[in-house]
């Protein structure tokens, strides 16, 4: 059962392998470089982007264990929960989702989706939730729910990074640079573990994410020589945006018919466009941007986007 990552993918129709395509940027047309994008946003309607990769080794561990149980934490709108629910159903695993806050009278669509797909919801008050998700919780969770595989939020752990390194199976050799949006840095770590012949550029989408090098070390990245972090493209912080960012996303769509989201990939692409203007890349560079998905977040912006 669950012998390989590709096998899980094929159990999750309508999965499709991610494509790589060329794209243009407003500032790049005259520069002697090439730009391509890995379309992880297209692999699956529910578990798009980087999330399914980060989950892989947790699923494999749970599937080969005796307990066959996964526990994780999440908010009522968490795509992390939705992705795990679907994967657990597919792999016949028990899934306990610990939700932040008291049980509301009506559940969010995300939670309903999770429950329809077999998640057992457990509501923890905010105080308990915070204590449990930040302290060493394994003993308490074990006492209450028995043996299980625990998935940290965002997959932030060496196991999650190992899973993210599987993204590199879909990236051919030859790209001089790979650029990605960075939240917990798990995906970035995975790319630097798996795509060793490219330079890695990370664009933090949070303000004051100053500990990325420590995070990478925790996630198993020993050699950080070919890693660069450009910290000035967070647009004021997580999920913050400006009219310039939205206009850039629309312009990018006009040029390429590729949608970006304002929390992650819009900021990454804006950063890429801007460093190209500054001649950051040597002549002949071949750059791969990773589209990590996240498009469902754009629902709050419908009137401002042309896609
Ligand atoms: C979750 C997410 C990220 C962040 O990935 P990390 O591994 O936490 O750095 C990036 N892009 C999108 C679209 C995401 O949903």
Notes on the structure:
This protein is an alpha/beta fold and 307 residues long. The chain contains 11 helices and 10 strands. The protein has helices at residues 5-11, 51-63, 79-90, 109-116, 126-134, 138-145, 158-164, 186-194, 212-218, 243-256, 265-277, and strands at 20-22, 34-39, 69-74, 94-100, 119-124, 149-151, 177-182, 199-204, 227-229, 286-291. The strands form 2 sheets. It has a 6-stranded mixed β-sheet, sandwiched between helices. A 4-stranded parallel β-sheet has the order 5-4-3-6. Helix 10 (243-256) crosses helix 11 (265-277). The longest helix is centred in the last third of the chain and has 14 residues, at 243-256. The radius of gyration is 19 Å and the shape is globular. It starts with a helix and ends in a 16-residue tail after the last strand. 38% of the residues are buried. It binds pyridoxal-5'-phosphate (PLP).
């Amino acid at each position: 059962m669950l012998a390989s990552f590709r096998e899980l993918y094929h159990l999750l129709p309508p999965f499709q392998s991610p494509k790589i395509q060329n794209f243009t940027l407003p500032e790049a047309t005259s520069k002697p470089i090439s730009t391509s994008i890995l379309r992880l946003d297209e692999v699956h309607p529910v578990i798009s982007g980087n999330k399914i990769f980060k989950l892989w080794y947790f699923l494999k561990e749970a599937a080969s264990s005796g307990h066959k149980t996964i526990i994780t934490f999440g908010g009522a709108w968490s795509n992390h929960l939705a992705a795990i629910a679907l994967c657990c159903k597919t792999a016949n695993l028990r899934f306990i989702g610990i939700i932040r806050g008291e049980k509301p009278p009506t559940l969010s669509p995300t939670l309903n989706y999770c429950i329809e797909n077999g998640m057992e919801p457990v509501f923890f008050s905010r105080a308990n939730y915070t204590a449990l998700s930040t302290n060493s919780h394994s003993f308490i969770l074990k006492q209450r729910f028995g043996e299980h595989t625990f998935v940290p939020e965002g997959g932030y752990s060496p196991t999650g990074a190992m899973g993210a390194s599987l993204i590199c199976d879909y990236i051919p050799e030859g790209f001089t640079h790979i650029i990605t949006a960075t939240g917990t840095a798990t995906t970035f770590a995975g790319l630097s573990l798996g795509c060793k012949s490219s330079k890695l550029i990370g664009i933090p989408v949070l303000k004051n994410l100053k500990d990325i090098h420590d995070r990478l070390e925790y996630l198993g990245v020993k050699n950080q020589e070919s890693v660069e972090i450009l910290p000035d493209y967070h647009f004021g912080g997580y999920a913050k945006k400006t009219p310039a960012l939205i206009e850039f996303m629309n312009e990018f769509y006009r040029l390429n018919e590729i949608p970006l989201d304002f929390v992650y990939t819009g900021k990454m692409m804006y950063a890429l466009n801007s460093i190209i203007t500054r001649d950051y890349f040597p002549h002949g560079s071949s750059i791969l941007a990773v589209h990590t998905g996240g498009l469902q977040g754009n629902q709050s912006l419908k009137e401002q986007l042309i896609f």
